[in-house]
Specification:
The structure holds two protein chains of two kinds. The longest helix of chain A is centred in the middle third of the chain and has 39 residues. Chain A is mainly alpha-helical. Helix content of chain A is 78%, strand content 1%. In chain B, the strands form two sheets. Chain B has a three-stranded antiparallel β-sheet with strand order 1-2-3, with no helix packed on it. A two-stranded antiparallel sheet of chain B has the order 4-5. Chain B contains 13 helices and five strands. Helices cover 57% and strands 12% of the residues of chain B. By secondary structure, chain B is mainly alpha-helical. Chain B is elongated and about 85 Å long. Classes of the chains: A mainly alpha, B mainly alpha. The interface between A and B is large, with 50 and 46 residues.
Chain lengths: 310, 359
């Protein structure tokens, strides 16, 4: 986990070092800023040094919980990064809740009623759903919000948020979150549903399911107690992959629906040539993914005793 | 004297023929394949099929609604539209129509980028009566024509990207699996590193290494390079796993004992055994490359105006005012959807046909 993050930060840092021009190229063209100011700033961030020396200073600061200073936003990067990280986490977390909450029961339903109209309908919708790009889905949601006016677009809260009572504040935030989370959830749902269906179908063919039925257990008991426990395990393994897709999807949704998360920050920082902020965002997004995978491993060990024994 | 010929079984087919027969039975895969052939043909002949060029500005007709030719006294005709003063609302003028002809002479273009031509598939030949099957955008450019020119970029990036990254993935994965040991460890750690960063974040970081102000061709090359740079890792991992098990097989041992070089064993014996997987995986991965270009251009770091690409065209639809009043700007989204769906249809069919375990 730690070596991976170090590797990713080193890689991103190297890429940023290779990038032509930096924030100071634009600054030095600004006649209002004296060369001394720029020299001071450069010394502060060790920007005159080779990139690997910069990297060590950056790493040292990160380990002290200091993400530096965002030159484009003119505020400490630490608070900025963590605020955006929290927003991305919120969006992804709720999207994931919706995805798994809908996809798993649907997958089970489709598998149990194999070849019924429910199964065929779900398969068709999932197949079409797999092909709708996130970009189009977000744009359609944007269009929907604009046409109906039911959902606010952009930001995590309305401008009058501070004047509201706590209950209203909660509703206000939820109201802003619903549409982006739904879009993100819908984009990921089809894959999980198909996976759940095929897993359960596989386990339902297993000998121990036959054995359970032969012993005269009820169909519900057979499916939910015997087959489902085993069908869920492979899903926990793909949880890691789905998380990567989720974060990339969140990147798109954030940028189109103006949700101030890490993805949007990355793009903004990229355009502002705020290289440190780009590195920070990439590393934090990776950290989010790595932690998610770690949790998936724990969940898998909890759900599958065979792994715990190893 | 008669030579005894071995009795050839008339039903004996080569693996390729069996594969093709199995594929033909999956109608949905054939539909997907047919749609793709159509799309790529249209992209190839974009200059001919498109009534206008991708950067022709019609300054009198911003946000012109779609004009579909209708049948009137055995002629396909388009009406003339008049703009309501002060806003972008257009109304057809009654009884002021112009017939639409096939193979009309219009703007000059270069077929395949080489042959100069000026014949277009359809049009009226009169600029007062434009044919805009999908309306015009905020600069008065024909969305349909831009869609076709954009498909040249968006569709080809998928195929070229796949070719590049799968070639790298195959070679690197083959080497990694065949030699195992230290080489394998280093390559696999690198793959894990690449795969552990959410792809879009890595794409943006990679994008930063390129200078601004590149030409269209350079941007195109850049997008392919970036997407392939990330795409090879997943492929290499799978191929490596296959190579690891294949190298223990008898035929590899036989080849080695006959003195074949490692390169020959990898390229002639190991990699061909992975091809059925590779073809299926390639078909199912093309959409990721197409979508990669779409996202990059959409975010404004890919293909730049006035060139056309599906992602760039969708960028205009990001404006909610435009979106609400001029929904035809979403047409590239529909095009992307159809393309991705067709690739998924074909890929699914290929996978089923390649899976010899099931019937």
């Amino acid at each position: 986990m730690i070596p991976l993050l170090l590797g990713v930060s080193l890689l991103t840092f190297l890429l940023m070092a290779m990038a032509p021009g930096d924030y100071f190229t634009t600054l030095s063209q600004n006649p209002q800023i004296s060369p001394e100011t720029i020299a001071n700033l450069k010394a502060k961030f060790h920007l005159g040094e080779a990139w690997y020396i910069q990297y060590f200073y950056w790493l040292k600061n990160i380990l002290h919980g200091d993400f530096g200073y965002s030159m484009a936003y003119k505020i400490p990067a630490t608070s900025l990064i963590f605020e955006r990280l929290w927003n991305t986490f919120l969006l992804s977390f709720f999207a994931m809740l919706i995805t798994w909450g809908v996809a798993i029961p649907l997958g089970i339903w489709a598998a149990v009623r194999k070849d019924s109209w429910v199964d065929r309908g779900c398969s068709l919708v999932a197949f079409v759903g797999l092909s709708v790009p996130d970009v189009l889905l977000s744009l359609l949601a944007l269009w929907f919000a604009a046409a109906t006016g039911w959902f606010p677009v952009g930001g995590t809260q309305s401008p009058i948020h501070d004047l509201l009572t706590p209950a209203q504040q909660f509703w206000d935030r939820a109201h802003h979150l619903i549409l982006p989370a739904l879009v993100l959830a819908a984009a990921e749902m089809a894959g999980i549903m198909r996976q759940m269906r095929s897993n359960l179908l596989d386990t339902l063919r297993a000998e121990y399911v036959n054995a359970a039925r032969a012993r005269g257990l009820g169909e519900g008991w057979v499916i939910y107690k015997h087959a489902l426990r085993n069908a869920i395990n492979p899903l926990l393994t793909i949880f890691g992959y789905s998380l990567a897709a989720l974060l990339s999807g969140a990147f798109i949704v954030e940028n189109i629906m103006a949700w101030p998360g890490l993805g949007r920050l990355t793009i903004e920082a990229f355009f502002a040539k705020d290289s440190y902020l780009v590195v920070d965002s990439v590393v934090m997004a990776t950290a989010l993914l790595v932690v998610g995978n770690f949790i998936a491993d724990i969940l898998l060990a909890w759900s599958d005793p065979r792994i715990r024994l190893k | 004297m008669e030579t005894t010929k071995p009795n050839l079984n008339p039903i004996a087919l080569s693996p390729g023929q069996i594969f093709w027969q199995r594929l033909k039975r999956r109608r949905i895969a054939m539909v997907g394949g047919a749609i793709l052939i159509g799309l790529y043909l249209i992209a190839l002949f974009a200059g001919f099929v498109a009534p206008y060029s991708h950067d022709r500005l019609d300054r009198d007709r911003f946000f012109h609604p779609p004009t579909w030719p209708r049948l009137q006294s055995f002629h396909l005709v388009v009406p003339r539209y008049e703009q309501q003063p002060g806003n972008f609302i257009y109304h057809p003028v009654a009884d002021d129509v112009m017939p639409v002809h096939l193979f009309v002479r219009g703007e000059k273009y270069k077929l395949f980028g080489l042959i100069p031509a000026s014949i277009h598939l359809f049009g009226t030949g009169d600029d007062k009566y434009p044919v805009y099957p999908l309306g015009t955008d905020q600069f008065g450019r024909d969305v349909f024509s831009r869609l076709l020119y954009g498909s040249q970029i968006s569709l080809s990036i998928g195929v070229i990207g796949i070719l590049l990254s799968f070639t790298f993935g195959l070679i690197i994965g083959g080497i990694s699996g065949y030699f195992a040991g230290g080489v394998d460890t280093v390559i696999m750690r690198l793959c894990e590193l690449i795969m552990s960063v959410p792809s879009l974040y890595l794409i943006i970081a990679l994008r930063g290494t390129f200078p601004p102000g590149m030409s269209s061709a350079q941007v195109y090359g850049m997008i392919v390079a970036i997407l392939s740079c990330i795409g090879w890792a997943g492929m290499a991992r799978v191929i490596r796993g296959m190579a690891l098990s294949l190298r223990e097989q008898q035929f590899v041992l036989a080849a080695r004992s006959m003195g074949a070089t490692p390169w020959r064993i990898i390229s002639r014996h190991i990699l061909p055994s992975t091809f059925s997987y590779v073809i299926v995986a390639a078909t199912l991965s093309v959409p990721y490359y197409i979508l990669g270009e779409v996202v990059l251009s959409f975010l404004g770091v890919g293909i730049q105006e006035p060139s056309a690409s599906w992602g760039l065209m969708l960028n205009a639809a990001q404006n909610t005012e435009y979106l609400k009043n001029y929904p035809w700007l979403l047409a590239p989204g529909a095009a992307i959807f159809v393309t991705v769906l067709a690739f998924n249809f074909l890929g699914d069919g290929l996978r089923d046909a390649a899976d010899t375990k099931s019937l």
